[in-house]
Amino acid sequence: MSELTDLYQEVILDHNKRPRNYQRLADANRSAEGFNPLCGDQLQLYVKVEDGVIRDIGFQGSGCAISKASASLMTSMLKGKTRAEADELFERFHRLVTSDAVADLAELGKLSVFSGVREFPARVKCASLAWHTLRAALEEKAEPVTTE
Amino acid sequence: MRAVRGTSSAAEAGARFDVERIRRDFPVLQRKVHGKPLVYLDSAATSQKPKAVIDSLTRYYSEFNSNIHRGIHQLSEEATSAYEDARAKVKSFLNAAEEREIVFVRGTTEAINLVAQSYGRAFVKPGDEIVITAMEHHSNIVPWQLLGEQTGARLRVVPINDEGELLIDELEPMLTGKTRLIAVAHVSNALGTVNPVKRIVKIAHRRGIPVLVDGAQAVPHMKVDVQDLDCDFYAFSGHKMYAPTGIGILYGKSRWLEKMPPYQGGGSMISLVTFEKTHYNVPPYRFEAGTPDIGGGIGLGAAIDYLNAIDLEAAAAYEQEVLAYGTEVLSAIEGLRLIGQAKAKASVLSFVLEGVHPHDIGTILDREGVAIRAGHHCAMPVMQRFGVPATARASLAFYNTKQEMDALGRAIRKVREVFC
Q1: What are the average pLDDT values for consecutive 10-residue runs of chain A, which has 148 residues?
Q2: What is the predicted ipTM?
Q3: Which residues of B belong to the active site?
Q4: Residue B348 and residue B372: Cα distance in Å, rounded?
Q5: A39 and chain B in contact, CB less than 8 A
Q6: Bridge partners of residue A50, in order along the sequence
Q7: Does B367 contact A1 at a Cβ distance shorter than 8 Å?
Q8: Which of B169, B265, B338, B394 can pair with B41 through a Cys bridge, CB separation 3.0 to 4.6 Å?
Q9: What SS3 state is found at B305?
Q10: What pTM was estimated for this model as a whole?
Q11: Which helix (H) or strand (E) holds B165?
């Protein structure tokens, strides 16, 4: 049961139940849609960018606890961050969920709750969906993102 | 499908079935997953394989591997004869009238695409209509949409009720002079509903409309007689009925196959080739371009031998008992909602759990050794119909037991402990 409790940490369960920034932004100037065709997760991301800084961010959609909590925590952490800072956080997050290297949990802040995901390779896509969708939104891609 | 529910003869047939003996035939069922005994409840995705099927592959590759219908040497003759024997076994298994009505394909998906493209090219014109149902798998939706894009034909969809049963009264008014084909699942992969295929065929034939049946989820669970059903096409995959992946069958009545153009061009499907003109081979070879999955065909034959040896009627009756027991176990769990509660049902327990996404259910069950599928089951319109993004699906075969249904119930309660 211990790997399971690592995966479904309290913070993740909380963000799944009460996702933060779960709203459509009326004044968003970037948006993108993400799909995980394997499990049907679907995510719409809204971002307001001004002078290269993420001023506001929100999301809507349906998905598993991991993907919803990931989107919720991601949006909580990105407000006020620059594009470069967001990219760097994405890279760190990606390493955390995919590689065996010991991650610097302090650098990751709240995102460190996703450290259990690497033991569940099938769930990496769930955790990453919001981040891939963010990248698409910032790059202003028209096509929906899929994790396949 | 034979009437197996609630009758005393069905109970007797079920009691004849020795599941422990059957389980020993399936090597993978002995293994552990995450330290727990495997509870394999994903047979609707693919079934496990009995040792007899696995051995047939080993024997083919180690004793007479060679190409078929070509060589004049001993190995090729042996391989050709084993492959064509498998065709004869499929013919008897489906009670088809003739061997030439049995076309080897890769699976159900290819069988349906073959009909859509070949029958479609010959018989479907702009403004024509193909009728399907609201419970079809994507592989019985998208090939018809592709045909529609190519020909200008339209798709019409017979709706289902809240139990997941076909509203068959809505079918007849949908049929017009423009209806070219009805394509319907025998058993729904997402809901488990058994459709009244024989009745549908009768309704269609009164108007001269042919019927294709997607039998992928039916052949592993019930005796299928294509002459009794009187359907024009019947498609299924080997891998869901205890045979290897990569092989499947399209049954087609000769009167249709003879009029249909080739699906793919290549070797085997021709009788004479010049650069000016090519003469096509007769069915079934006309539809079998290229070297097929020879080992897979032989393995399918071995799976049919296995099914013939085990008393399929007793197996079906037993499986219905386990399904009924599993339905009880799941219904007793708080917050659980079964999706698909048709009166005539086979194999499938599709469900959602309040406040928990099916994907999370799947992960937690896996850690308990319980293998299920979570997602839209390649039937997104079914998910939309029931207003859920996905379901968790436990699907049975005759090697499952009531104890495994209890293990499923216990594992789902663990999910609730984590989430609720």
Answers
A1: 85 94 95 85 94 96 94 95 93 89 76 90 92 92 74
A2: 0.89
A3: 378
A4: 11
A5: yes
A6: A53
A7: yes
A8: B394
A9: helix
A10: 0.93
A11: none
